[in-house]
Amino acid sequence: MYRIGGRLIFDLYGKSHGPCVGAVLEGFPAGMEVDFDLLNEEMSLRKPTGRIGTPRRESDTPEFKEGLTDGVTDGGNIRIEIANKDTDGSKYMKFYDTPRPGHADLPALLKFPNHDLRGSGQFSGRLTAAMVAAGALAKQYLSARGIEIQAYSKSIGDVRDVNVRDPEEIRGSRMFPTRACDAETDKRMRLCIEKAGAEGDSVGGVAECVITGLPISFGGIWFEALDAELAHSMFGIPACKGIEFGDGFALAGMNGSVSNDPYRYENGSIVTTTNHLGGIVGGMCDGSPVVFRVVFKATPSIGKCQDTVNLKTGKNDTVEVTGRHDPCIVPRAVAVVEAMAAITVMDQLLRE
Amino acid sequence: MYRIGGRLIFDLYGKSHGPCVGAVLEGFPAGMEVDFDLLNEEMSLRKPTGRIGTPRRESDTPEFKEGLTDGVTDGGNIRIEIANKDTDGSKYMKFYDTPRPGHADLPALLKFPNHDLRGSGQFSGRLTAAMVAAGALAKQYLSARGIEIQAYSKSIGDVRDVNVRDPEEIRGSRMFPTRACDAETDKRMRLCIEKAGAEGDSVGGVAECVITGLPISFGGIWFEALDAELAHSMFGIPACKGIEFGDGFALAGMNGSVSNDPYRYENGSIVTTTNHLGGIVGGMCDGSPVVFRVVFKATPSIGKCQDTVNLKTGKNDTVEVTGRHDPCIVPRAVAVVEAMAAITVMDQLLRE
Amino acid sequence: MYRIGGRLIFDLYGKSHGPCVGAVLEGFPAGMEVDFDLLNEEMSLRKPTGRIGTPRRESDTPEFKEGLTDGVTDGGNIRIEIANKDTDGSKYMKFYDTPRPGHADLPALLKFPNHDLRGSGQFSGRLTAAMVAAGALAKQYLSARGIEIQAYSKSIGDVRDVNVRDPEEIRGSRMFPTRACDAETDKRMRLCIEKAGAEGDSVGGVAECVITGLPISFGGIWFEALDAELAHSMFGIPACKGIEFGDGFALAGMNGSVSNDPYRYENGSIVTTTNHLGGIVGGMCDGSPVVFRVVFKATPSIGKCQDTVNLKTGKNDTVEVTGRHDPCIVPRAVAVVEAMAAITVMDQLLRE
Amino acid sequence: MYRIGGRLIFDLYGKSHGPCVGAVLEGFPAGMEVDFDLLNEEMSLRKPTGRIGTPRRESDTPEFKEGLTDGVTDGGNIRIEIANKDTDGSKYMKFYDTPRPGHADLPALLKFPNHDLRGSGQFSGRLTAAMVAAGALAKQYLSARGIEIQAYSKSIGDVRDVNVRDPEEIRGSRMFPTRACDAETDKRMRLCIEKAGAEGDSVGGVAECVITGLPISFGGIWFEALDAELAHSMFGIPACKGIEFGDGFALAGMNGSVSNDPYRYENGSIVTTTNHLGGIVGGMCDGSPVVFRVVFKATPSIGKCQDTVNLKTGKNDTVEVTGRHDPCIVPRAVAVVEAMAAITVMDQLLRE
After folding, report:
1. Closest alpha carbon to B132 in B84, B167, B82, B198
2. Domain extent at residue D51
3. Contact criterion met (CB < 8 Å) for D281 and C103
4. What is the CATH classification number for the domain harbouring B79?
5. Which residues contact A191 (CB under 8 A, 6 or more apart)?
6. Buried b (16+ CB within 10 A) or exposed e, A227-265
7. Is the confidence at residue C2, as pLDDT, over 90?
8. Cβ A241–B261 below 8 Å, yes or no?
9. Looking at the 3D structure of chain A, how many domains does it have?
10. What is the pLDDT of residues A22-47, one digit of tens each?
């Protein structure tokens, strides 16, 4: 299923080495004038940079195929398409025989008899460009209603940002290629990625996302819980292997007397004095910012020789990946996390 | 939304202090003779025991209101109902004024003008009894097809089981009240829970779940990915604050050359020689067992005095909880994790 | 699928000779005080009367199992249950061998290996009691917003009401057992039904439904069109064999210059001066009342000897039906048409 | 909602005067080699011909943007796009002020603030080209499984084909521009359409569709009934105002002893000896061919002067339509009926 959502339906399409990737937003209200500067900024944040991203270069210009009239959303489906231009399928042929470990290759080949492995076909991270484009519209819609969604690189490899970051600091991550919150961390993260890349290896990391401006009780019950739907959409991002809210897995070791966030009145509003629970109780907001982290594994496509099977010979074999790949996708994934969070929150907002 | 699923729809109903809780399974194939011994075993694993669970005592006998004819599924909707008998709403009245921190009380009161707070109303963990009953049917269905789902307590408070557990050991956790995998860990976990309870406090923990028997390529793409749907259903369980697959958050610090699980032929089948990725790549199974962990926060209802607001006076206040509550829900949640995993996997199986 | 709806989900359950039938409404807004007099009136309109309905007698008292707190909708799922008391399964055994022509018996037996034929099991018209109960709530909700839904018997057998009926006349049909709009037509329809019943036969008919108060543009596009969703829900009523809007099938023979309903201003509002199209263009309201008709076939269970097959002997055979059945279901179906129309319109209203 | 379906999701996009129209089929099984001759034949049957269709000329060549690898379905989403080339929006500007009676103009303008009226925007019958292209794939899939779907023009204006037509005769309608079943009827229908066109008027009609090869019990219960889902998808076709199965509205006047279709064994199979009920009982097939009729109203865009309102002046006004329009859409709609029936039946088949 390329689709998620209840009232705002988000639908992906395309593949890595086809003519384009794209997304449809169904249920987007009419009347919003699209801020193309914002859209382009979001798109550029997902683009690879320098030695810390893939050498594949795409202009990534979103074309609105429907849903806009004179730059304003017209209440119909919004369809955004992004052309694939810099494709090079020559390096993928061998993966039909020797599928890459840690990659969708093997199950995809078994599931789809005619699977197109080039650039990973419809499993390609390239479709996240369409996520970011659609997410930019959702972000703009939410921002006009006081809801802001900001993410940054919490850790990459062994470099971990141990500070608690406020929304303004997180916003500052937009000026750093690794999406770190300060220059020092950015430098350390860059070195970490470049080192992995130089060794023909790759490295994982964690993105943290903070959502502000949601009123107390925003969210839903049981399977419509805000955290449940955010978890679902985050796992829709390739390479995501986990999500945690607030103190997350550390909550296992905490007593309730510690992890319960106390309520207080502050200028007539109810606030919590701590935020161990990440702003969500019972699937609904409790007045704190919503805070969650998403872990991304290292990219599976690496230059090192790896053990795998050979589907043609039926024997054990090895594979080395020589195409163009990211040594770390976390810096680019930060923009995707923001986009999918925005789409999910906007979908819930339209259901309120 | 009390409902989840694509082809097998699972639908919850009821509330803590109403006449009953229940669940509907829509799309369950006809012809399966229900194993009532298995069903009762699952139900009993969710029941509170000794001093490590709530003193509320319910017989938790599932009644089949429809969907069975002579004990065999008849292809219609299966509706299972569980009566509420041991209810005592007397202790909940004060939470209308002073909502419990860390609890659904406050957002629920703001969201639903006539919200019934007794036992947390429709947010009650009591509805997980219906999850377990429905899950028992799904487990039986899957088991007949070679798919087994087993969970256990990975950690409770500061007690952590550091061993890698195989399915047989995990199955052994059924004989221990804490769902630990061995007697020694069980004893330590019990002490940890009893200590928290004695102090009027509560404690969190982690459940680990292992799914065996899924063929390579089982799962789906993008938002239908097996991990995405498991994440969604796990966050449907109250108190869940995070989920991770395989090495989970530790993958952030790993290189691809380590985390990629190599493929090998073994007796003609493809297997992986490690399982860092938890058996899932690209949303589909890679031949390893599926392994994930779910963290549950400490129960918010504790005897200690906590800061909160008073919605009637509009002033800051405190609250102490005196009803019947679990000092730790992890031992009981293990059965719920198995149940929801089974429902999710069976739903995907029916879509294959 | 026992379920329909986008934002207001309506879900049926139960069977004819089980303990009860029921319905769930998910997504019904909190805060409506239920008018039980209206609810009971709607229920009584679906009950069989005199010789024109089945002799099966049920009190049909809807019990609210959840969703009401002190008689007010509380924002949770509303579950309404109606007990089955006057069941008599003795007459159904022979249909396992000799399925009734014109009835769900044969396909149901082939589809569901353990199908319970008594009272037609889960296919029973008895579940329409739950439709009417749920529909009464939707009607009340709509009525408070100026939207009224009224239906009546347009024809029964060869008795056809040739008048154009306005909402007030249609409302008057509530005092006549056949749901005719005047005493004279009621008498003729009654005779028609009684004649069929006396001959051990049954007869069909047409219900017409008029919806007033919908604003211009109410509805949706393509498969969310108001007429598309009404058609879907009407065919969910047993025995429905067709639906037409406005002049319906007569539109085939009309020119556009006749069937196009002209717009005019009237007291500042836009109205149409004719209503050939039944108030809907492009799936949305055009300002006229929405008018549609639903045809119901004659009940298949008749006393006359009919040709059928014998599934046990594998030979041709005959069957006579001796249970309790309606000689005409149209008078009772009128209430069901109103109910399902109300549920569908309210669902669309919540999506606007 | 541009989307319909449970397991096979059909999703429309585009508008009349945008760059293209298109459709996505999600859930189409991998491995079917597309028969492009069949596809082109279906497309050509929807094209306007001579004086009985619009003068707008489009090549209507479906391009597969995704889902095919070397002409074979690859298990991914199938996206088919059809370019709009012969657009002329000059004649539509006045409808912003004086909306056409009988047309989506007025409600669409009120619903969507920036609605693009040219060619009716996203309400355009032009999107039915995408229905036909997608339907051609579903037809091929069904045909390989012995299921055939055939439709023809049952009536146009006052010309009515009174014969019962068998599948072979219906197939013959493909050689006649009006989709009549014989040359004589074709001629009379053509004259009827040309007469209306010459008068600046338009005319309606009825398409009849016959589905053969469905096994007894094919279909579903309640809102998943085969007739309920066919009704929903038929009302998704613009200008549809009614649907009836078997004897349809005539069943109102029939006794059960007549309308019940008796079962008999014939060469070991169960058949019905009559087909009053259109092959469906209880939402499932009874062994007879499924037969239904769909009525289409006359095209609203006519050259005659019509009364309407002027939204700019707020006064009554008139409008004459001078763009390119079909005097009768029934001959073209026949192909669309077949396509949508095929998509709906295939969707149900994948759910069986």
Report:
1. B82
2. 2-351
3. yes
4. 3.60.150.10
5. none
6. bbbbbbbbbbbbbbbbbbbbbbbebbbbbbbbbbbbbee
7. no
8. no
9. 1
10. 999 999 999 999 999 999 999 999 98
